[in-house]
Amino acid sequence: MNExxxxxxxxxxxxxxxxSARPFRAFLSIIAIAIQVILVLMIVGLTSGVxxxxxxxxxxxxxxxxxxxxxxSIFFAFSSAVMPEFLTEQIAKLPGVDEVAPTxxxxxxxxxxxxxxIDYQRFNALSRGFLYRDGxxxxxxxxxxxxxxxxxxRGLKVGDTVTLLNHPFRICGIVAHGKGARFFIPLRTAQDIxxxxxxxxxxxxxxxxxxxxxxxxxxxxxPLNRVRSMAEYMTLMNSSNLPELKPFIRTMVGVGVIISFxxxxxxxxxxxxxxxxEIGILKALGCSRLxxxxxxxxxxxxxxxxGSLAGIGLTFLTQTVLRATTPTLQILITPGWLFAAILLALxxxxxxxxxxxxxAASYDPVVxxxxx
Length: 372
Fold this sequence. Notes:
By secondary structure, this protein is an alpha+beta fold. Helices cover 54% and strands 17% of the residues.
């Protein structure tokens, strides 16, 4: 009688038959697992995307070194204007320095956007300069430059008025993105708004070639300052290297796994109760305890796989929609996290199905057949 049940084809048909016999419950299980996958991928994708995109913009400024005050954060939005502006000339006179740009970094809390207060000539000289899509540099203290990404997302054009830092600014130019901030205003204006007269947040420095030698020269001016090379900064700006983000990511991943575990546990526990007579029949036909466990775990893993694929598909759909509607929001989904999300879904589902499967396997066939 065992021959009636054994074989991959018969097992697969039995799995599909059991799942298709309860389509609504299977659908809910797939949706729950898909939500877990979406949660994991979106949380990790958003944090990784924002960090990677910010690092890329900082790299695009054109500097080799960044001079910051002691104990400064790698997140410039938390920077304070504590560095004296007169350091500009001292750094510029160093033999290894080609150009230096004092920068005051302000965070517009209302719009959640970083604004750079810059000395236009010095900042523009760090690289090949701003690439203008429209307009030109600011000539008045109440003018601002916007990059093309934020201009597209907000529908801004040259001549429009935008409120930044609770002050109105006229957009005088639209520039290509990738120069650090989304908006740029004159340094003096930024200092007046921040109440930081003759002070800046940091200095961008371009060396003449020997970055490490130039770094040592800058440190001699004030050994307490933090001088990072751009290569060092790019290495730090990785979500897996940021201790502030690790607990958050782990918590969100844990929440996703718990959701999958609880949903599958409840679903499979109810399923075992409903199929008590069926379990008794399978045992009467000669199925072993291991066969019963494999049957229920197989159904669960099949649902988890379907849910994972659905979750990945919905995640990419969400990513596409957000790119079209909110260009400033970057989501980075890597192959490694795709596999990790599937693995987490399978592990969570298998853990949730383990107890109900073992309980089903322990049923006495005589008692199970008499169950109503």
